[in-house]
Amino acid sequence: MSTQASARSRLSRSAAIAVGAFILVAWTVFPFLWILLTSLKSPTDIVAVPPTFTFTPTLNNYIALLFGDQSGGGVSTTRPDFPRFFVNSVIISVGAIALSVLVGIPAAYALARFDFPLKGALAFIFMSFRFVPFIVFVVPLYLIYQRVGLHNTHLGLILAYQLISLPFTIWLLRSFFMEIPVEIQEAAAIDGCSWLGVLTRVILPLSLPGLAVTVILGFMFCWNAFNYPLMLAGRNTFPVTVGAIQFISYEQVLWGQMAAATIISALPQLILSLMVQKYIVRGLTMGAVK
Amino acid sequence: MGNNIQRRRAQRRRSRVVLPYVLMAPAIVLLVGMVYPFAVGAYYSLTSYWLQYPQRFRFVWFDNYIELLEEPLFSQALKFTLGFTLVAVVVQVGLGIAAALFLHGRVPGRSTLRAMMLMPLMIPPVITALMWKIMMASTNAGILNHLLSYIGLGPINWFGATEAAMVSILIIDTWGNLPFVALILLGGLQALPTEPYEAARVDGAGAWDIFRFITLPLLAPFIVLVATFRTMDSLRIFDVIYATTVGGPNDATTNLHIMAYQYSFQWYQLGRGMAQGMVLLLLVVVISYLLMRMWDRAAERTPK
């Protein structure tokens, strides 16, 4: 009798787990699946009523996206913008995170290992950028960039992206540096290492995984940026995030190409996020949670 | 000889004093470059700067702020900003606790589920919005309306009707950020001490009592922390709204950030736009300060 009851409760428990897992998977994966299907559909299949799961897949949306619209008899009628947007995203994101890391390593080292007046104030200012709505930065930046010729340039965007990546880089690197026992550093100093030696031979090698996490997450934040480039970039420098919304115009929405563009824009993120999945929560909270 | 040693020591001490500033110097240069536009923006909020009428530029003190109080769109936007944040944080934290508890239990394939949950979290929010925009097509070709028709609902005009548009943005924002909440809380659950649970089991406490009187209080610091992060971002949500409704229909989904954007970049009234931006900043600072104090108290109460 009691074994029967416990068997039944075990059964209902696994049923509950199955339902929960199904909801979680469906909620998370279905949008990706549907967009992937949409990106493989022809225009007629996309507007089919009711929506269809069975259709003849076509790569035309991707071809149009990457090589231009081929509908004019195999000859490309328009020059595709999207490959350029993708290259722009790579240039700006790599440039921004490279600058942030270069500047951030010594700054994080100073904040982690030295006591100096103004330290608290500097740390506070860097943190406080997290609170400011982007609009307050972007309007003055827009006017300044117009005047000094940084508008619609990669350099201008790399500099503006420091608002996203630099405070994050400094804060996260600082938290990784602080984990290294001071004793190791002191031992190196007694052996005659200068501060530079301590940094390059002790701190950096020991925090290499942390550095990799910082670089990858910082790259992802820059890749995801939308509102700064929306205002500060132009046709030559738009990244994929801004490029992807341009499939919506007054005349029509190019659903298929937009779906293909979202898949391609999300792809680097999906691959990179798997590499640093253990550290993502820590990165997103700037080290507030380990 | 001794003199020499003293001089070297003094030198080293001096370098200990100067060195941190040398290390910080490049960052400080960039910092100045970041603070400068902010200061300019704050200054503009006190002027009548209108890009099309530069000759009207005057310093007007707090006129822009005072005028906001009489602007119907402002009270609407303020209401939507606060209302959306409250609902979004409650919904996302509530569902996040449920998801975290689920993943904390003995679920087969847990690490796969965790890795899968990172996907919505890491892709650009604007891309998330476009993905849902495709699914939320209000025609009969929209997959969500099609799925709803199976349970006798719909069709819903996802972005065209006032209330539906608000809910749509909530759904999109939740899809993108629920994993963040769930993963932080899961980390919190895994860090909890086991002794109280063993004691409760000995006392024969039920599952609900264990959750209510042990898990929830112990998890409180993590809940407040994650709520703080979500509050800060929900108050300023921009990308998702811009990519879907652009504040419509009838300004129903216009929050302060979208409003400040419209004033600045559509009507070029930079003075007013910046004043709205500063109000939003004030809101973010005050609310997150209150939440952080709550966090301090929650962290104090928790036995270490």
Structural commentary:
The complex is a heterodimer of chains A (290) and B (304). The model of chain A has no long low-confidence stretch (mean pLDDT 87). Chain A is built from 15 helices and no strands. Chain A starts with a helix and ends in a 6-residue tail after the last helix. Chain A has 2 domains: 2-67; 83-254 and 266-284, MetI-like (MetI-like fold). Chain A has helices at 2-39, 43-46, 60-67, 82-113, 119-128, 134-148, 154-160, 162-178, 182-190, 195-206, 208-224, 227-232, 240-244, 255-275, 280-284. Chain B has 304 residues and is mostly helical. Chain B folds into 2 domains: 2-44; 63-301, Orthogonal Bundle (MetI-like fold), CATH 1.10.3720. Chain B contains 12 helices and no strands. In chain B, helix 4 (110-122) crosses helix 7 (162-191) and helix 11 (256-266) packs antiparallel against helix 12 (270-301). At the A-B interface, helix 1, helix 4, helix 5, helix 6 and helix 8 of A face helix 1, helix 4, helix 5, helix 6 and helix 7 of B.
For the secondary structure, the number of strands of chain B is 0
The CATH superfamily of the largest domain in chain B bears the name: MetI-like
- Largest two-chain interface: A-B, 84 and 89 residues
Beta strand count of chain A: 0
Secondary structure layout plus pairing:
The complex is a heterodimer of chains A (290) and B (304).
Chain A: H1 2-39, H2 43-46, H3 60-67, H4 82-113, H5 119-128, H6 134-148, H7 154-160, H8 162-178, H9 182-190, H10 195-206, H11 208-224, H12 227-232, H13 240-244, H14 255-275, H15 280-284
Helix pairs in contact in A: 1-14, 3-14, 4-7, 4-8, 4-11, 8-11, 9-10, 11-14
Chain B: H1 2-44, H2 63-70, H3 72-104, H4 110-122, H5 125-135, H6 143-150, H7 162-191, H8 195-203, H9 207-235, H10 239-244, H11 256-266, H12 270-301
